[in-house]
Write a structure and sequence with these properties.
121 residues; mainly beta; eight-stranded mixed beta sheet; 1 helix; 8 strands; 5% helix
Length: 121
């Protein structure tokens, strides 16, 4: 995969479900993921890693226990490891995530919204 050129817009066009991250590529031991978000996710933490959100389109609110962080197109925010958060998107939002390989989308919360990493076709 590292020798292939990947187009972010084309990758997102192939995603039909929300909250289902797909690997765009990998860099060292990190995955670069694309995902479409809509609605409210689950409160969770990633005890072992930070999580970077880069919004491409739409508006994403990262709810933290002490404040809300609102991101628009081209905004980037890092949720520090161990910080409980809950992403929320009123309309559809397209996002890039940077996370260590093997990071579960629901972190320590588990549950029905847990998704294994999907590969783009």
């Amino acid at each position: 995969m590292s020798d292939d050129v990947r187009n972010i817009s084309a990758a997102l066009e192939g995603i039909s479900e929300h909250w289902q991250p797909h690997r765009l590529t990998s860099v060292n031991d990190y995955d670069v993921k694309v995902v479409k978000l809509q609605g409210e996710f689950v409160w969770h933490t990633h005890p072992e890693t930070d999580e970077l959100f880069m919004v491409l389109t739409g508006e994403l609110t990262i709810q933290l226990r002490d404040r809300d962080v609102v991101l628009g197109p081209e905004d980037v925010f890092v949720v520090p490891k161990g910080v409980e958060h809950c992403p929320k998107a009123v309309g559809e939002v397209q996002v890039i995530l940077f996370e260590p390989q093997g990071t579960t989308n629901t972190g320590d919360a588990g549950g029905s919204m847990t998704s294994g990493l999907r590969e783009l076709t």
